[in-house]
Structures are given as structure tokens and as C-alpha cells.
Design a protein that fits this description.
single chain; alpha+beta; 7 strands; 35% helix
């Protein structure tokens, strides 16, 4: 069952100040708009599911995204000063969800900080200020180290898969409703897994969808 994280007052104030910063707030707004424009099927469903999860009310001082209704309700900030990720996948993230990675720092992207995507066999030059939308739960990724004397930080936005599971089980913990040993009843969570991935794939835009979208945007 979702709940509020517990942190000290000092840390909560620091997070609230960070999220209220005009640059951070502006980027969150930009990302939300891009998700709705480029990934409209995912963005609308993600917003509805996260709202429907009805998590407990935030306590006093609990950091929130404020007035910006961000489409990815979780955030991780890597303060470095030499942030480099080892090979990993966000296995607890929504499997068909978009993870937004924003790179920051003063490193030279020609000599380090590249983003490596294992399954697509891609190495991407990833400069400070660049952002990428990545299904991080199903693509293994990592970074190339940066040069000595340089700095790299990153901010990522993502969606926890547990929020969607909780909402799909009608706001009940996944342990509730499971069949007992020897019972012929079907586990509703297991039933959902069979169709969850295909439903998620259906929310990605096809190449034809993307072509049509960009043609309409350019007015051609």
C-alpha cells in the first residue's frame, strides 16, 4: 500500500525548496507538456492512474510537486559530483512507463557521460542540459565515466509500478485477495500481469503515429 516517506524536517525543507525552484519547476512543466504531446496515450492514462491511487494525504512539510501536475510522480536527484550509473534497469518502475533523464554539469560530452542503451545497441552523446525519454524498466542502460576535474549531475522522473498495481487491485495491498494454498481461485494480480504488458505496448505510438503527429505539428 502506498504511503508517505518519512524524512527529517531539515531534509523536507531542502526538498521543498528544490522542487519550488523556478528552473526545476519549469523543466517539470515542460516534461509534462511533452509527454502529453508526444506520448498522449501514456500521459493521459498515467495521470488518471496516479490520481486514482488516492494515496494518503501528505503530512505537514512533505515535499510535493506543488502546482505542477507532473505526469511522472517520482523523482531522483543525483548530486554527484561525478554521477555515473552502472548497468541497470528500473525494475520497480512502470514497465511501459517513460523515465525522463536530465543531465547537468560542466563535463565535455565528447569525452564522457555518454548514455549506453544495451538492447538497442546505442551509445548516445549526452551533453549537460540534454534530456531523454527512456522506458528504463525494460532497457538496460549505463553511463560512460567523465574526465577528471569535471562534474556531472542528473535528475530523473519516473513512475513506480506499485502505484499502478495498487490502483488495479482497487486500492488494496497485493497480499489481499490472493488465493490460499489448494484453492482453485485465481489470483487477480496474476491475471492482470497477463494483459498488462500488451496494454502498455498499446500506449506507445507507432512509427506511423509519429509521422502523422509531426506532419500535423509542422502543418505539412
Amino acid at each position: 500500500e502506498p504511503g508517505n516517506c518519512v524524512m527529517t524536517d531539515k531534509r523536507a525543507r531542502a526538498w521543498q525548496a528544490f522542487l519550488a525552484d523556478s528552473v526545476i519547476h519549469g523543466m517539470m512543466l515542460y516534461i509534462s507538456i511533452r509527454i502529453l504531446q508526444q506520448f498522449s496515450r501514456y500521459g493521459a492514462q498515467n495521470s488518471a492512474r496516479c490520481t486514482g491511487a488516492a494515496t494518503p494525504p501528505c503530512g505537514a512539510g512533505t515535499p510535493t510537486f506543488g502546482a505542477c501536475r507532473h505526469r511522472s510522480p517520482s523523482i531522483t536527484v543525483n548530486f554527484g559530483p561525478k554521477t555515473v550509473c552502472r548497468w541497470h534497469r528500473g525494475v520497480f518502475n512502470l514497465v511501459f512507463g517513460w523515465c525522463v533523464i536530465w543531465a547537468l554539469g560542466d563535463y565535455d560530452s565528447r569525452y564522457g557521460g555518454h548514455l549506453i542503451l544495451w538492447e538497442p545497441r546505442l551509445i548516445i552523446e549526452f551533453a549537460p542540459g540534454d534530456i531523454i525519454f527512456l522506458p528504463s524498466a525494460c532497457i538496460t542502460h549505463a553511463n560512460v565515466p567523465i574526465r577528471e576535474g569535471k562534474h556531472r549531475y542528473s535528475i530523473t522522473w519516473y513512475t513506480s509500478g506499485q502505484l499502478f498495481r495498487y490502483q488495479a487491485l482497487h486500492l488494496a495491498p497485493s497480499s489481499i485477495g490472493k488465493p490460499t494454498e489448494g484453492s482453485e481461485a485465481t489470483d487477480p494480480a496474476e491475471e492482470g500481469k497477463r494483459s498488462h504488458w500488451m496494454e502498455g505496448l498499446d500506449r506507445f505510438m507507432s512509427l506511423d503515429d509519429l509521422k502523422q503527429h509531426h506532419t500535423e505539428d509542422s502543418g505539412l
